[in-house]
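Reply to dn_fold:

You asked what the input looked like. This is it:
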Amino acid sequence: MSNDWKPATKAVHSGTRRSQYGEVSEAIFLTQGFVYETAEHAEARFISSGDDEFIYARYGNPTVAMFEERIAALEGAEDAFATASGMAAVSGALTSMLKTGDHVVSARALFGSCLYVLEEILTRYGVEVTFVDGANLDEWEAAIRPDTRAVFFESMSNPTLQLVDIEAVSALAHRNGATVVVDNVFSTPVYSKAIAQGADVVIYSATKHIDGQGRALGGVILGTREFIRKTVEPYMKHTGGSMSPFTAWIMLKGIETMGLRVRAQTASAAQIAQTLEGHPALSKVIYPGLESHPHHEVVMRQIGAGGTMLALELAGGKDAAFRFLNALKVGLISNNLGDAKSILTHPATTTHQRLSEEQRAELGISPGLVRVSIGLEDTADLIADFHQALDAAK
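and this is what came back:
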């Protein structure tokens, strides 16, 4: 692989391993284990495996390795470990590096399952967690201590699309020796500059934009080779959260078209947000690409685009939100995102329903809030669909 390649070329060619048959499309190595020529060969491999030497699919696999190398090349990371889901990546990255007595500072605005990992699982094992307003640098500075082991945040929060300034928070964390762990799923690998901006560890749910077509669950942890192979890999291979070879092949195919898909979805999301802003049925349109968004400057500096996600706050609360969702003809009601199909979610009753009413209010998840993941449908069809559904919601 050439380091001079542009992202689109890396997305098609990086990490490719061809068998003796010279296949064009990457091979799927559907095998649990690997054969050794001799007992001595087996012994040597368990002591130290080379780049193209594999032991067991839970430890590594040629198809999975291709995906790891390709996404690492795109992200500008030294290495990557592919996981069974996005949440396996979040929990694996954090749990593998933390122990009893460690301190973590996290943004408060997170996906519900990420909150569960921090609030319920890590604290159960004696990790102290402090939550802050991710957009408020003064709160980060006050919360990060000399004994802080890690900071964690979603660079663009789910579902309210708040931006965290990666560069600024990383500088505060590194000043105290803390590791910066960023869930970057809404920013996508297409627009990400997270490592260059100071992140030490970057996490993606590959289920979202990387697959992009609703076919498989997957995740990936990216970072330095030392962190991935000395910290993450021992934990993941022994606890069983590795990606399957077939899923890795799906993700390889998804990466090839990810740039085309995500840029088209972003352009559509921007046009839809501009069209819907000010609609009488909406109290708010939340889209980082709009100048009205409080963190517009941060998103344009950080990734240079508004992204594929927006949120609509229906003026009539939950009842209006449900009428709007039920009237859709093109958009689908589901809880995934980053898909070729436009998907709408009511976070207060689904992804964040576990939270108390007070917690949801603190995060800005109102009863009328609808999260929208823009797909690849014709933008005019989506705008017409949203308008007729908003008319039904009045």
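The longest helix spans residues 245-276.
Hope that clears it up.
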